Amino acid sequence: MAGTQRDAALVALFDEITTLAQASDDFEAAAHATLGSVCELIGWPLGHLWVPADLGDDFVSADIWAGSIEDFPALREVTLRTLFSPGTGTIGQVVTTGKPVWSRDVTADPLFFRAQQERDLRVRAAFAFPVVAADGVAAVLEFFSEQGAERDEPLLRMLTALGHQLGRVIDRQRVHQLVEGNRHRLRQLIETSMEAFISMDASGRITEWNAVAERMFDRPRQEALGRLLHETIVPPRYRKAEEAGRARFLSTGRSNVLGRRLELAGWRPDGSEFPIEIVVWATREDGEWAFHSFVHDITDRRRAERALREAYEAEQATVARLKELDAAKDAFIATVSHELRTPLTSLIGYLEVMADADAGVVEASPPGRRMLDAMIRNAARLQDLVEDLLAINSINPDRLEVDAAPVPVGEIVEEAVRVTAAAARDSGHGFQVRLDAGAGHVPGDRDLLVRAVGALLSNAVKYSATGTPITVHASAAGHQVAIAVTDTGAGIDADELPHVFERFYRTRYAHEHAIQGVGLGLTIAGAIAEAHGGTITAVSTPGEGSTFTLNLPVSAPGRPGGRGGRRTVGGRTGRSA
Ligand code: ADP
């Protein structure tokens, strides 16, 4: 071929391969076409493709040939079993250098190993050039002639440029494979999603519809694809709004729906509706908008919410009813207690007159006398119970009001001891009272405070052995006055101590020894303490005794330094330590 003619043909080949390389992402097809075109151009009978082995760095034959390879069985056979490591032999050299190689005569070229292995390959000249992709040599094209031939530098230069064009095909093929891989993974993700996945194009037609969507909206994929979304899953009354929203987004880019978690109504072909939670987002590919959504059926959640709401309402109704019953019970107790109080007082009065030998109303024999005493004792017990019931009723749930005036601490203690003295005398207890100088006055309600200390004293009497001492010690520290009642009695177990201020709570000891009481004394005392801005604390060692301490502020609560004042507190109180 004459020089200029050949140059024109080379340029034509270059153009042809460049056009092919720009359009194709099938490297093997492009390589095959290139092999054929080059053979035709230079008039050589054989072309062949080397590619990387599946594993490792070696290059192996792709067994892709241009020309009649069947006429060269020895060459094909030895080529198929040859591996080139980078740097070794002709092909290895091309791989490492990225440059073409030329053998004028393969039988005389020490780098052309195959000619050494097989005597009669029936080829003489050979050359190879690399296909260079983004990350280096990705394939090698090799050509054979039956005659020897000198190195053709212009040809090699042009083919080297061609190798870079073919490299783009490989790059594109890899990107394509990557994209395909991602798309495949995405498909799997969508298909295995626990939620319905639905996509639509800008015209509102469904383009994706996974298995969950099939079940949720009761429509097979094939039937759903291509349908208008709003006619497929949106209840008729909302369809116009859906269309309008999509149109507004497409024209203005504004949307009230995109990217938000919305609770809407879903629709099935049988006309039934159900609650759904849906998130919609938009993507743009090649200038075309597409909308995608995950949809979750929230029928169960709604049902659970409704059940919860109903249960709450039912409970509220029960609480209201219980409150009514509680109020009725309190009213009943108050009425009955009041009704019992008057006849009891009169009964006790007459009994005491009868028992008073000096009065001489009744001349009682000794057994008659004992009966009279028992009647008086039991009537007094009943009177205590009635008083406790009345007190607890006024403390809870109503509010306890305190009219505070300065009360001498000594007077509180003295009066409480006096009230309890009779019981103490009966059981042979003696009170040892100690009043510290600082314990002057506290603001409060004298009768209530006497009642509180009296409750502590009466417990000390009840829960300690006959004849054992009970001490009452009033002291002052900082802005507090403490009235401590200590006995050497049964004590209280640690697990029971936190409960002794609860209404009707009685310890195992009280039950087992049938000690008189109903479990209201400390509740009332605690409420009185709190109404005065104070507390009752308890320390106890089982078998050794207990100390209950009434702590009171020396100024009226809420009015530092002040005297008097009114404090209102509801409910039970008291703290144990
Ligand atoms: P009760 O009417 O039973 O005495 P309280 O409310 O006064 O009711 O006391 C609650 C319980 O606390 C009593 O039943 C008793 O078990 C226990 N308790 C109170 N004070 C003492 C004490 N000083 N020693 C031992 N146990 C006590």
Structure notes:
The protein has 577 residues and is α+β, with helices and mostly antiparallel strands. Helices cover 46% and strands 24% of the residues. The chain contains 16 helices and 18 strands. It has helices spanning 3-23, 27-42, 73-80, 89-97, 113-117, 153-192, 211-216, 221-224, 230-233, 239-252, 299-355, 366-395, 409-426, 446-462, 508-512, 521-531; strands at 46-52, 59-66, 101-103, 125-133, 136-145, 196-201, 206-209, 261-267, 273-285, 288-297, 399-408, 430-435, 441-444, 469-477, 480-487, 535-541, 545-553, 565-570. A hairpin with a 2-residue loop joins strand 14 and strand 15 (480-487). Helix 11 runs antiparallel to helix 12. The termini are far apart.
Could you give the topology of this structure?
Blueprint: H1 3-23, H2 27-42, E1 46-52, E2 59-66, H3 73-80, H4 89-97, E3 101-103, H5 113-117, E4 125-133, E5 136-145, H6 153-192, E6 196-201, E7 206-209, H7 211-216, H8 221-224, H9 230-233, H10 239-252, E8 261-267, E9 273-285, E10 288-297, H11 299-355, H12 366-395, E11 399-408, H13 409-426, E12 430-435, E13 441-444, H14 446-462, E14 469-477, E15 480-487, H15 508-512, H16 521-531, E16 535-541, E17 545-553, E18 565-570
Parallel strand pairs: 12-14
Antiparallel strand pairs: 1-2, 1-5, 3-4, 4-5, 6-7, 6-10, 8-9, 9-10, 11-13, 11-18, 14-15, 15-17, 16-17
Helix pairs in contact: 1-2, 1-6, 11-12, 12-16, 13-14, 14-16
The structure holds adenosine-5'-diphosphate.
The site of adenosine-5'-diphosphate has 23 residues, from helix 14, helix 15 and helix 16.
